[in-house]
Amino acid sequence: MRLTSKLVRDAFIFLVVISLPAYFFAFNYTLNKNKSEREQTIVKHILSFKGSLSEALWFGDYPYTKQILNALSYNDGVTQVSLIDESMKMVFDVTSKGHTHSAELLKKKEQFLKSHSYETDGVKIIPDEKALSNYLLISLSKQNEDKLEKLGVLHVLYHYDDLKKEARVTAMIMIAVLLVVFLLFFLFEYLYLRTLLIKPLSDLEQAIGKMNSSGDIRLPVNQNHIFEIASLTKTFNKMGEEQQHSASIINAQQSKMINISKMSSLGEMAAGVAHEINNPLMITRGYLDKIQKTVNTDLEKYSEIAVPVEKAINGVMRVAKIVSGLRSFARNGNSDPMASVDLDKILSETLEMCFERFKHGEIALQTTNTVTAKILCRESQISQVFLNLLNNAFDAVTENEVKEKWVRLQVEEDKTASGKIVIRIIDCGNGIPEEVAKKVLEPFFTTKETGKGTGLGLSISVGIIEDHNGRLYLDAKHPNTCFVIELPVGT
């Protein structure tokens, strides 16, 4: 169950649980309060007429006595006013129809009258809870010289049925007010919790979903959140950073393992191919050397074949050089020691391997080398980086629709820092879009069609150059597509 639903459910249960006790408390409190007020009003009214009523009875003014009893019967809730003389006979009776009293109340009244003392008894109230009414009895007497004359007992029966209905309405109003106040409080509390608890947890839930899909899981830390939520957000962001760092390490290691496997397989194949090609090449070279010696003994006689033989020997040497470069390129150089190697040698062997491809693709391969220096490196790995960048440039230019297609390799000293060599591989393209440029050096990112690229070449190249204390990056400011390699000069 979601937190919002649980809050609503718990609020509803709380309302039900608290409403019933609150209703009964409000009902009983209001009813008892109104009963007490009615009782006090009636007693106060009776006591105000007690002297006049006693005088009327003493002098036998029965019309006035009747008038007083009628006035007393007009009080709210009074249903019967009667006067009993000292012999316990009813003298006057004013009764309102529509209300009865129980037999238990009559029994209580008779018991009171039997034990009644004019000298000590004042106002006596006999409750009748079953009939929701009370009997009020008050003694009437007159002091005549030294003797107390008994005049009778005034009986007043009153009820509070109407007070019960009023108490019910009052209790309902109080419950309604309570509900409104509670709902307003709950709404405020919900909005408060939504800001400080529900929304941060919802953002956390969405971020976890993104973590499984895109890896972008950083959440903004709001200092207005409660301490626990802010701390949880910081911990989660730290976990996300560690997860991304771990993922990048895993991807890098995975790309290296794939490259090592690929290079190992290619090296084994290249070694076999080189062995099979070298044998017939050496035989061909041997026969060509013999022919060349024969030609050189009499150039006039063999002038027609002198040039073709020279070209054939150069072709055989070029094939042998390509095979040697392929074997050097394809081998895994991770375990090779660093060695000081002529940079021009690495570049010439690399260009030799891709020269024919550029030629058949009608793409001009231009080189500018103003530096004669050695670099401390693993030769096969640096050759792999150069060849990978040249092949990427070839693929990009092939898809370009410009008329003059070219790729340029520039080698020069770093003008901003001594002891460094800068190699630029530039093609005639108009650069790489910004959204692609941000990811182009990441593992497994590729813009090529399925089956034509794994997205490992550039990321592995970055790792190789960094292992050589150098840097490989995309020059975003260059008008064309330009990858830059910076390497320290060797000794």
Automatic annotation (TrEMBL):
Domain HAMP stretches: 195-248
Enzyme nomenclature, EC number: 2.7.13.3
Domain Histidine kinase, chain residue ranges per copy: 272-491
A single MF term (Gene Ontology): ATP binding
Superkingdom of source: Bacteria
Cellular compartments annotated: Membrane
Predominant location: membrane
Recorded catalytic activity of this chain's protein: ATP + protein L-histidine = ADP + protein N-phospho-L-histidine
Keywords annotated in UniProt: ATP-binding, Kinase, Membrane, Nucleotide-binding, Phosphoprotein, Transferase, Transmembrane, Transmembrane helix, Two-component regulatory system
One Pfam match: HisKA
InterPro entries: HAMP_dom, HATPase_C_sf, HATPase_dom, His_kinase_dom, HisK_dim/P_dom, HisK_dim/P_sf, Sig_transdc_His_kin-like_C
Transmembrane helix among keywords: yes
Keyword presence, NADP: no
TM ranges: 12-31, 169-193
PANTHER family the record matches: PEROXIDE STRESS-ACTIVATED HISTIDINE KINASE MAK3, SENSOR HISTIDINE KINASE
Name of this chain's protein: histidine kinase
Taxonomic source organism: Bacteriovorax antarcticus
The organism's taxonomic lineage, starting at the top: Bacteria, Pseudomonadati, Bdellovibrionota, Bacteriovoracia, Bacteriovoracales
